[in-house]
């Protein structure tokens, strides 16, 4: 009876441990670069398709520290048009000055997140993608920006020339 309880306890711990390990895995990860033999830090690269403007893909690189309670806040982003973008997609997005969060990833057990926000610049007809950390590090909130112009897409609005 005591052995059965011990086996059940061990099985529970193993199940919980594998669940915690799997939480760190990402189905959007397309790259993993080790920073060396004597470090537990890696550069992870995620490919994220905009959930509304599906013709845009963003690649975000960030550092993950396997044995630390918090990952570094630095990140880099590059977004490009990878498919059609139409007027219906642009009509469906949040056009406020702060835009909307389209992706969020935990970077710490202490409430630090990396977020990806889409903002629409109507004057230049450009989508702005901002990657940022929600926790101040060394006196700064780390962030990175990329833009996708709508020029030559189905969503681009041609303004008639006034005579």
**What form results from the Cα inertia axes?**
elongated
> CA-to-CA gap between the ends?
92 Å
Q: Strand tally, please?
A: 8
- Across the major sheet, the strand order is 1-2-3-4
- What is the element string, with H for helices and E for strands? HEEEEHEEEE
Number of domains: 1
| Percent of residues in β-strands | 35-45%
Helix content: 10-25%
How many alpha or pi helices? Answer: 2
Q: What structural class do you assign from the helix and strand content?
A: alpha+beta
Mean pLDDT: 79
Radius of gyration: 21 Å
Unreliable stretches? 9-25
Topology:
Elements: H1 2-23, E1 29-34, E2 41-49, E3 56-65, E4 75-81, H2 87-91, E5 100-106, E6 113-121, E7 126-133, E8 143-149
Antiparallel strand pairs: 1-2, 2-3, 3-4, 5-6, 6-7, 7-8
Describe this structure in words.
The chain is α+β, with helices and mostly antiparallel strands. The chain has one domain (27-149). Helices cover 17% and strands 39% of the residues. It is built from 2 helices and 8 strands, in the order αββββαββββ. The protein has helices at residues 2-23, 87-91, and strands at 29-34, 41-49, 56-65, 75-81, 100-106, 113-121, 126-133, 143-149. The strands form 2 sheets. It has a 4-stranded antiparallel beta sheet with strand order 1-2-3-4, with no helix packed on it. Strands 5-6-7-8 form a 4-stranded antiparallel beta sheet, with no helix packed on it. A hairpin with a 4-residue loop joins strand 6 and strand 7 (126-133). The protein starts with a helix and ends in a 14-residue tail after the last strand. Residues 9-25 have low confidence and may be disordered.
């Amino acid at each position: 009876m005591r052995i059965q309880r011990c086996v059940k306890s061990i099985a529970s711990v193993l199940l919980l441990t594998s669940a915690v390990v799997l939480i760190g895995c990402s189905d959007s990860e397309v790259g993993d670069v080790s920073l060396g033999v004597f470090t537990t830090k890696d550069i992870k690269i995620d490919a994220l398709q905009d959930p509304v403007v599906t013709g845009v893909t963003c690649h975000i690189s960030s550092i993950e520290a396997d044995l630390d309670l918090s990952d570094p806040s630095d990140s880099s982003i590059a977004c490009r048009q990878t498919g059609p973008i139409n007027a219906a997609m642009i009509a469906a997005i949040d056009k406020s000055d702060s835009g909307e969060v389209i992706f969020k990833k935990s970077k710490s057990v202490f409430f630090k997140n990396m977020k990806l926000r889409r903002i629409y610049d109507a004057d230049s007809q450009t989508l702005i993608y901002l990657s940022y950390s929600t926790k101040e590090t060394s006196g700064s909130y780390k962030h990175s920006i990329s833009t996708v112009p709508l020029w030559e897409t189905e969503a681009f609005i041609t303004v008639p020339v006034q005579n």
